[in-house]
Amino acid sequence: MLNVGIVGLGTIGKVVAKALDDGMSGLQLNGIASGRREKAEAFLATLNTPIEIMSIEEVAESCEIVVDCAPKVVFAEIANATISRGKILVTVSGAGILANPDIEKQAVEKKARVILATGALLGLDAVRAAAEGTINSVKMVTRKPPNALQGAPHIVENNITLEGLNGATCVFKGSAREGAAAFPANVNVAAALGLAGIGADLTQLEVWADPHLDRNTHSIEVDADSASFNFSIQNVQSPENPGTGKITALSVITCLRGLTQPLKVGS
Q1: Which domain covers residue 137, as residue numbers?
Q2: What's this model's pTM, rounded to 2 decimal places?
Q3: Is 212 a catalytic site residue?
Q4: Do residues 252 and 223 share a domain?
Q5: What CATH code is carried by the domain that includes residue 51?
Q6: N or C: which end of the chain has fewer CB within 10 A?
Q7: Of these residues, 131, 218, 243, 249, which one is catalytic?
Q8: pLDDT tens by residue, 211-243
Q9: Phi, psi angle pair for 230, to nearest 5°
């Protein structure tokens, strides 16, 4: 059995913790780190197996796999604690990876692994396959209900008003790297797309606030020497955090299952 620790017990962390508590072949939940201790204790009391609340360092020390479900602001701390011990880090924070460009080099030196789960995006297998050849262009258009974009650095710094919109409004246009910094909690999908394909600087991104939507929508167009394809996904918002799709936590769960399953479907 591999011990799994979770850092962050919010929208994603709770779902992953519950799945581990219900049982995953070859994996067991061993520890939790959370900045909101009282809420964490209340949730952990609902699990079948008693779980200890630890520090980030203690989670990384006692677990073979650390699942990052925390805000981007603590990504570097989680990554350093995990990688320095030669452990496996599972995360959906493509923005965190982009903001820490030495992370792959550190993982090589410490014989650690960093796994970026698919998150709220589909088609990464196809993009990664196309990247083995030549990709000419990648464009992504993200459309979200205004409530999903509230509080994002780009919205706040540019005094963009999202209330009372009558129609879809483009609030950002640039590269995936720029978008990941502008919307660190909203467009991890764009960062993941950039990492999978031609890079975050060459991946084009548009972000729209659309009051007519009730789902977070991502549309991607890829042109490569091996294939041209486009796809879109409409993610149901998580009740606790409208900026995060419900499928994000499920992608982390399937990523964990893939670490121990004898048959893994998809590259």
Answers
A1: 124-244
A2: 0.89
A3: no
A4: no
A5: 3.40.50.720
A6: C
A7: 218
A8: 999 888 999 999 999 999 999 989 887 777 776
A9: -140, 150
